[in-house]
From TrEMBL:
Signal sequence interval, chain numbering: none
Family to which this protein belongs: Belongs to the sigma-70 factor family. ECF subfamily.
Name of this chain's protein: RNA polymerase, sigma subunit, ECF family
Keywords, alphabetical: DNA-binding, Sigma factor, Transcription, Transcription regulation
Superkingdom of the source species: Bacteria
GO MF annotation terms: DNA binding; sigma factor activity
Species name: Nannocystis exedens
Domain RNA polymerase sigma factor 70 region 4 type residues, every copy: 121-173
GO terms for biological process, alphabetical: DNA-templated transcription initiation
Gene3D superfamilies: 1.10.1740.10, Winged helix-like DNA-binding domain superfamily/Winged helix DNA-binding domain
Presence of keyword Transcription: yes
Amino acid sequence: MKRPVQDEHELLAAWQSGDEVAGEALFERYYEGLAFFFASKAGEDARDLIQRTFLLLLENQGRVRDSGNLHCYLYGIARNVLYQYYRGKRRNRDRFVPEEESFEDLVPSASALIGQAEEAQLLLQALRRIPLESQVILELYFWEQMTAKEIGDVLEVPEGTARTRIRRAKQLLEKQLELLANSPHLLESTLSDLDGWAKKLRAAWTPPQ
């Protein structure tokens, strides 16, 4: 009897060879995380960006094998797809700078999730006001539970540089929380359990079908 393919790299290789079941298994494994990654920044275009990400993953199988970590490589692709998406919305595509521009700069009319605790609302608003690159870093840190080394792999920078960027992103987030909080109690409640509120915010979100 043929052994079921479970390893991610084996699934990808099988998909590359035409095994649609393996492709579906890989898609199901990562769909929800990627859906959240894109929907929180691209809204109704998220589904198309997910498809682009998986297509690029399929086309770059050899590079994935060399990278060793499929999870990080996939989110590296997703990050590039997201930035290409925003560049495509600009007349001058070279002017999009993810290290400086925030989600609120790019999509000022976007609304936050409603019906959630004030702390979760505050966290989401603050995330959307920091530079997009910092938002991506913190989402990988909080929601994908990536280590500094793994985030460095996504960003294609050394682990030490990734640690510095994570620390800087947290500082930017805290500054926005301070500016947005309508009371010292709300600020303290949010800051005292950032990881917990991030998880609650993630759990409350439903991926697009």
